[in-house]
Amino acid sequence: MHRLSLAKLALLLPLISLLGGCAPKDAAPVPTDPGRWWYYQTRAKVLKEITEQRLLVTNLGRDENFLRQRRQANWDHRYQFTGEGLMHTQYFNRGEGMGALRAAPALVLPKNIAVDERWTFTSALKLIESRTFAPEDRLAFRPLPVTMTATIKSLDEAVNVPAGRFRGCIRVDAEGETQVPTDRGTSFAVVRVEQSEWYKPGVGLVRMVRKESSDSRFLDRGEYTQELLETAP
Length: 233
Prior knowledge:
Blueprint: H1 6-19, E1 37-46, E2 49-62, E3 66-71, E4 75-81, E5 85-93, E6 98-110, E7 118-124, E8 129-130, E9 145-161, E10 164-182, E11 187-200, E12 204-213, E13 219-220, E14 222-231
Antiparallel strand pairs: 1-2, 1-14, 2-3, 3-4, 4-5, 5-6, 7-9, 8-13, 9-10, 10-11, 11-12, 12-14
């Protein structure tokens, strides 16, 4: 039997680790490993129209301060690691060569993951729409902001999605209200936004549901769901 010298063994171990794929994976609720990817089924209802699409999200690269993600082919998103947690800071449309910083960074998840942990962030209306055909009543192309209050509701929820059943998920609920102009600007209506997200540590976002509604007869509620189909092993 041939024996390897300690010197030769020391040289071989790094190569064995690389070939064996032994690098530890990020076990955070939002994994940041470069090359990590997620494939989702999305369903959006705006007015009476329902749109179903597939969404591919890929981690492009990171350093100790920033993470860059790609959504489909054209959109890149930039995140920053801060003392508060993971912040979403910028959108960039590669096809148009244009980027946009958020007016205020949005905290995705706090550093302290605990039940009842609470924070606020600014979102924008995306789903609710006017029932009338007047151009000035349309909401889709206006960046109408809404302040959302998010709360960690659970650290141990089970979620069923097309990719399978995930136990031990972190559930984050967020809600907010804002006013929008209606009836050609002659009145205003309150819009309520409710959003829930489920994160599996070591996997990432597995499900998200968002609803935008109002009691106004001029507005039609909208809904959006995003569920995990497949992810990197």
